[in-house]
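Review box. Two proteins, two foldings.
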Amino acid sequence: MIWVDSYDVFVSAGNGAHNEWDHLEARVPFSTAWLEDQGLAGKRLAVLKVQGDSMSPTLEDGDTPLVEMLPEDAVENLPDSVYVLRLNGQLLIKRLQSDLMGGLYIKSDNPAYDKIHLTQSNKPDDIRIIARWTGKKI
């Protein structure tokens, strides 16, 4: 077994949540064999909570996704996927997609929500990619 930190943090699948990332709630056991089968062995993992519906149907309000924690400099050259990010002090879980001009789209899977397009000229100072969703929920 491997113990994975579970944070009492709500990442917003909506308009943003003002949480800090230091509220360790518990540790969740995962089978080493299962982690190896999923290609997650040796990764720095965490569990958190989703609040809101902007990532529906991929992630629903109350889901607990398993995420891979990323290094602090992870903001460029990321593959298109679902990430936990801090943007202007808010924690979000969103789909990130690079554009050909070096910009970044922040998208919701729920079509009722608008996407945000960040470019070099409008890139906020306070943006950090914290984690990548592994595609697994517990």
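Next protein.
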Amino acid sequence: MIKKKILIVEDESIIAINLKEVLIELGYEPCGIAPNRSKTLALLEKGIQPDLILMDIYLKGSVTGIELAKELKNTIPNTPIIFLTANSELSTIKQATDSHAYGYLLKPVKERELHANIELALQKANLDVKTKEQLNSIENVAKTLEHTLQESKEEKLTLITLKYGYVFDIEKKVLYLKEDIVSLTAKERDLLALLCQQKGSYISRDQIEYSIWPNEPAGDAAFRSLMFRVRNKLHKDLIINSNNIGYKIARL
């Protein structure tokens, strides 16, 4: 069985050595002793990866154990920290709690309490990691679903459902009859796209000519030829004509 590695951050050398010996007796692997912030960071930079940290609240130097614990949450967020202190004041306990500590032990530390707190902290940290992974997984699934729904929504917005079994893809300018693509020329596709964009409203002949032949007048023959060809390929009532208003397409 792989022994759990525990880093001791304690500025009193005698206490640190005693903790190391107790940890060994309990079956853990002390992976280092540091008296302050700089030594702690130096050990971590060397590649030490503790499964848990025993942290004295009052360390040598300007940075307290609580401040160091908050800093380490950014670099080793999944490593549980148990605080050690001779101070039992409520304000100190509250500060330790606010730093998301996994335990709080008063010195001198009793072996049984130390063992129990370490095991509880390791179990809770493991559970927290699994919960975080599950939440991330759920979040990723939700994002994927949202993206899929958005794509589906966008795709639906480009598809215009017409009467008589026709569907027109406004973006690709492709007309479908059930699953088959209806063969159309470029200007025939332009005409259908123009009519579909009107959302069932009539569009005048002049507007049609200007849109499909923007650079030159179509002429009566060209316009009638286009309409005749399109209507010949489609259901006879798909394009509706009102002599006084113009043309529109039959949408559902």
